[in-house]
Amino acid sequence: MQSKNLTCTEEVRVRFNETDPLGIVWHGHYIVYFEDGREAFGRQHGLTYLDIQKAGFVTPIVKSTCEHFLPLKYGETFNIVTTFINSVSAKLIYKYEIFNQQNQLVCSGETIQVFLDAENNLCLYNPEFFQAWKDKMGL
Predict the structure, then answer these.
(1) Whose CA is closest to 66, among 20, 103, 23, 97?
(2) How would you write the pLDDT of the chain (139 residues) with one tens digit per residue?
């Protein structure tokens, strides 16, 4: 059975306050760009943090990775491609690719989030609302 992955592409502009004295984006901001990608993905595919909170859950990040290949500079625009990786586990796995204006891969990474209920208990099975979303998306 072939796995179906959902993606979202968001264009972002490098802001002045995100650059270091060398004029390039400080490495820590790429994690923020990943969040921009997750937010855009949620809006596009109907799985926002507000939807998750409304269902009574939170999804803290338990793992993040980030590899840098090329720098971004102040004023440049770039695309962040966010891909939801389907898993049978009760977790949200996102892969990210950031491309500069020349469509060169600047950075790639991944985050993994787990579900906690209202009492901060780890969910071992997909919450009902999340499974319904996956079913709706054909995952």
Answers:
(1) 97
(2) 345 779 999 999 999 999 999 999 999 999 999 999 999 999 999 999 999 999 999 999 999 999 999 999 999 999 999 999 999 999 999 999 999 999 999 999 999 999 999 999 999 999 999 999 999 999 9
Q: Which architecture, in CATH terms, is 6-137?
A: Roll (3.10)
Enter the tokens of residue 107: 């950075």
Closest by Cα among 3, 117, 113 to 47: 113
Q: What is the pTM of this model?
A: 0.93
Token pair of 49, please?
A: 């943090």
